[in-house]
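User: I'm new to structure prediction. If I give you an amino acid sequence, what do you actually give back? Let's try with this one:
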Amino acid sequence: MAMLDIDKQSKEEERERTLNERVPALQVSGLSLQDLQNLCKELHQKIDVVDEERYDINAKVVKNDREIQDLNQKIFELKGKMKRPALRRVRVSADAMLGALLGAKVKESVDFKANLKTVKKEEEKKEEVTDWRKNVDAMSGMEGRKKLFNAGQ
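Assistant: Good question. You get back a string of structure tokens that encode the predicted 3D arrangement of the chain. For your 153 residues, that looks like this:
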């Protein structure tokens, strides 16, 4: 514990020394109103510059973090250490499946056939099957060809 306290105290002292070197103490006493306003404007300009630099550095850090995550993911995929579980065939009834998917919402057994729509089947019109010999006899003469011609139009 003593080592941690000593390190913490030395870091604080170092921080104070660097701040004293980089940021000199302000001499505000004895300045006129105009001088104070100029000093405030200069400080605001410096703050704006520092904020822009901080924003740029933050954007670079975020970009680098994303890039590092992507590269780590690629390395992980290349190593091929992703374990896939062995899948087993599980027989589950329809009621158990609905219970698992919907939770406690469905307590009663669902009758799927009752919910289906009924469709009326229409009987297809079947052409009457006639004796082909009668048909040949009817179409053999000129009247038969005329009937075919008229039917086509």
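You can read the tokens as a compact description of the fold. Here is one thing that stands out. The mean pLDDT is 79.
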